[in-house]
């Protein structure tokens, strides 16, 4: 599970996460993309 600064769950990702995908999830949260974009869509658009 990943949380925002207020402690709200931002993303639930079960199991093993590849390092490249883990970095993308970090960007998704730190850069605030979770406020406007679905995680799966963000990963698809940024893993090119």
Overview of this structure, please?
The protein has 48 residues and is α+β, with helices and mostly antiparallel strands. 42% of the residues lie in helices and 10% in strands. The protein is built from 2 helices and 2 strands; from the N terminus they run ββαα. It has a two-stranded antiparallel sheet with strand order 1-2. A hairpin with a 5-residue loop joins strand 1 and strand 2 (9-11). Helix 1 crosses helix 2 (39-46). It is globular. The termini are far apart.
Largest sheet: 2 strands, antiparallel
Provide the domain count: 1
Count of DSSP strands:
2
What would the average pLDDT be, to the nearest integer? 91
Helix fraction by DSSP (H/I, runs of at least 4): 40-55%
Radius of gyration: 10 Å
Order of strands across the main sheet: 1-2
* Total helical segments: 2
Choose one word for the global shape: globular
Name the poorly predicted regions.
none
Order of helices and strands: EEHH
Class per helix and strand makeup: alpha+beta
What key phrases describe this protein's structure?
two-stranded antiparallel sheet; 48 residues; 2 helices; 2 strands; 42% helix; alpha+beta
List the helices and strands and how they pair.
Blueprint: E1 2-3, E2 9-11, H1 19-30, H2 39-46
Antiparallel strand pairs: 1-2
Helix pairs in contact: 1-2
